[in-house]
Structures are given as structure tokens and as C-alpha cells.
Design a protein that fits this description.
This protein has 237 residues and is α/β, with parallel strands linked by helices. It has helices spanning 9-12, 25-34, 46-55, 84-87, 99-105, 120-134, 152-168, 176-188, 193-196, 200-207, 211-217, and strands at residues 2-3, 16-20, 39-42, 60-63, 91-95, 111-115, 139-143, 227-230, 233-236. Strand 8 and strand 9 form a beta hairpin. Helix 6 crosses helix 7 and helix 7 (152-168) crosses helix 8. The protein binds D-malate. Keywords: Hydrolase, Magnesium.
């Protein structure tokens, strides 16, 4: 269990990683793929994204800086913008402040999956099945955080993954941070808003008027697809 800034090869080697940026990058990417986007190409900066568009006009540019749409981009980072009629069959180049960077940082892991409440169960089940086939013993959860700090929403979602793994496995060893995330999640599992209303990024998005995104990203398991970051792109497995 790590914040993406602290992720090292040592931590991630010989593991599968689940990268979580609950509000909102990984939730948005998963929803875009679930609505039929062919592929998402996460990039670290705006210039790189614009270069993709120059080379291929049919790609959509999505993402945010400060939570808001980037000038010249097609889409912001709200999952609700990634409707079927907008994204179906499209390649989307995305850059966000923390989420896309966290994905790149996780590339020391053997496989990298995207995590969110919206598809956590399916993702956890798929990972367990693959881990068994692959004799993989370690699953690392990488929280994107916000502005170089941990954020509560990612930790709650990590706790939900710990909860699912605990239910599915007879024996599981967790580090202290995973244990803390699990206990915190269990305390607020029925109403995460109850604790998140005191947290930084949740309030930032609320102030920007993204209440509907908060509701959306905190709903559990209504999406069936599992998303993997592989060969520099996010695709459905
Ligand atoms: C990020 O990558 O930092 C976030 O997804 C920001 C956001 O909520 O748009």
C-alpha cells in the first residue's frame, strides 16, 4: 500500500498493482472504457496530449488541471462527460494532475489495474483469478492522492479492496496502512460522505460544482468491465 510518490521498484516488483484515483481519474477512465472507448492513452503533460491530436485528429483529449477542463481539450475529467455517444469507438488521450502520473509510476509492477468503487468487485475477482494462475503472491495498492499528499477517498477505496480480498481469501496478510484503510472503510462503508465531507479534494470538487461526480464515484459495483494499463495504454481486459 503506497502513495504514488513513494512507489519504488522495490515495492512493486513481483506484484500486481491496483492504482486508485477515486476522485476522479481512474473512475473516469473505467467509465469511458465501459461506455465503449477503445483505448485510453495516459500522458503526463498537456503538450504531449496536444501532439497526439496533431498526429491524429480523431483522438479525443481529456483531463484536467485544478479540476477543470484544459484549454483546447475536448473533455474535462468528469466521468459524466464520457457518455457513450461521445466516447464509443474512440481513442482518448488523458492527462490529469495525479491519476495519470500514478499509473505511469506503477509500471514497475508485473500487471497494473485501475481501481475504483464503481467496478471494485469485478476487478478484485479478476485479479485474484489471474494471481492464482500466475502464482502471484503480492498485490500492491497505489493511491494517487492529491498534490503529493494522501487523500482520504483513495484510502477508503483501498479499504474496500482489502474488504473484498478478505472475504474471498482464507488467508491474507496486510501491511498496517492496508489494515488502517480497511478499518476506516468499514466504519464508513454505508455512508462515505460522512467522513469525506471533511476531506480536501472532495470539498474542492464540491466547490467547483461537481457534486454529481462525487455521488457517481462513490457508488459501488455498477460497472462490469475490468481495466488494465499495459503497453502504455488503458484497455478492457
Ligand atoms: C487527478 O488526477 O488529480 C484527479 O483526477 C483530479 C480531478 O478530480 O479531476
Amino acid at each position: 500500500f503506497s502513495h504514488y510518490k513513494e512507489v519504488t521498484e522495490e515495492i512493486l516488483k513481483d506484484s500486481y498493482a491496483i492504482v486508485i484515483d477515486l476522485l476522479r481519474a481512474t473512475s473516469t477512465m473505467i467509465w469511458a472504457i465501459s461506455n465503449g472507448a477503445n483505448v485510453i492513452i495516459p500522458v503526463e503533460n498537456i503538450l504531449e496530449a496536444k501532439l497526439f491530436k496533431k498526429l491524429n485528429e480523431s483522438v479525443l483529449l481529456g483531463g484536467e488541471r485544478g479540476g477543470l477542463k484544459i484549454e483546447g481539450f475536448d473533455l474535462d475529467n468528469s466521468p459524466l462527460s464520457y457518455k457513450k455517444e461521445v466516447v464509443f469507438g474512440k481513442a482518448i488521450v488523458m492527462t490529469t494532475t495525479n491519476g495519470t502520473r500514478a499509473l505511469k509510476k506503477a509500471s514497475f509492477a508485473k500487471r497494473i489495474f485501475l481501481g475504483s468503487f464503481i467496478n471494485a468487485k469485478k476487478t478484485a475477482e479478476y485479479i485474484l483469478k489471474e494471481a492464482l494462475k500466475d502464482d502471484m503472491q503480492k498485490i500492491a495498492i497505489v493511491c494517487a492522492g492529491t498534490e503529493k499528499k494522501f487523500t482520504l477517498e483513495d484510502i477508503l477505496c483501498a479499504g474496500y479492496f482489502a474488504d473484498i480480498f478478505k472475504t474471498c481469501l482464507e488467508k491474507i496478510e496486510v501491511d498496517d496502512l492496508s489494515l488502517a484503510s480497511y478499518e476506516l472503510y468499514k466504519k464508513f462503508e454505508n455512508d462515505p460522505h460522512e467522513i469525506l465531507k471533511y476531506s480536501y479534494h472532495y470539498n474542492h470538487l464540491k466547490k467547483l460544482g461537481f457534486e454529481a461526480d462525487l455521488e457517481f464515484c462513490l457508488k459501488k459495483d455498477f460497472v462490469d468491465c475490468v481495466c488494465e494499463y499495459k503497453n502504455l495504454v488503458v484497455e478492457k481486459v
